[in-house]
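Below is a concrete protein record.
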Amino acid sequence: MIKKILSTAVLGLSMMTSTQLAQAEDINFGMISTESTQNLKAQWQPILDAMQKQTGLTVKAFFASDYAGIIEGMRFNKVQVAWLGNKSAMEAVDRSNGEVFVQKVNADGSLGYTSHLIVNKASNINTIDDMFKQGKSLSFGNGDPNSTSGYLVPGFYVFAQNKIDPKTFFKVVRGANHETNALAVANKQVDVATNNSENLVLIKKNAPEKFDQIKIIWTSPLIPLDPIVMRKDLPEATKKKIKDFFLNYGTNDPAEQAVLVNMGNLKGFKESTDAQLIPIRQLEFFSQRNKIEADSVMSESDKKVKLAEIDSKLEALKK
């Protein structure tokens, strides 16, 4: 009787372990909402299909209405791997047990892209100075708060550096993804919006008549190309399979190369680490510093303490 009970218990444990292993091999791949789900699926599904075929893992696309949905999905292990922007990758690393392992590479071998402010081609706004002069009468399409190029970069270089808060500076402010902002500008539904060089390549390809109605009035310094992040606690063998897949994708197969071109004229992926996020962390701290310095309510003693904390964190990033 005891042998039978022990045998049943061992069998149960064996079955549970098998189930757990099977679940560990299920990969939900998250994609930030830079465009419509339909467009993202068209771009990424061939890669996910190839990843499943070549690794033996079960790979499913995971979509969310905003960047936070992907970050939280990874935090609660509903997402195991994700394509993210640098800002959202920083959040995933800090809050969701994530780590950067590869990043995109452009067709020309470069590893960067730029943020833009855009207006309609017919607009009399040609520079950010023109925008500043008319701000109170303009509608502004901002990006997702976790977007690097749609929010953090223009937020620092355009607004924080000029001590301007977009929420109070413009007549109307709304947040949307890159594609929605670009189309809103082209259709004269907003006066100014954030965007980036990668998305404008896709707009030009998918909607050339809309692209022709867009004018760039500001371009940022170079931003590191998007990383791909995985959860740190994935089995090491699974991590290796996933990393090897991305590093090899598009290196020899013409069909894979065509998929990469369709994603925004990419060449492939290269190895990367969390160190890629250092410039973005610096931007975040600089932005926080500017806000504290401009705070008219905070006492000087409190400002001094908070600024010292930020300066200490900035210094630590240099090591």
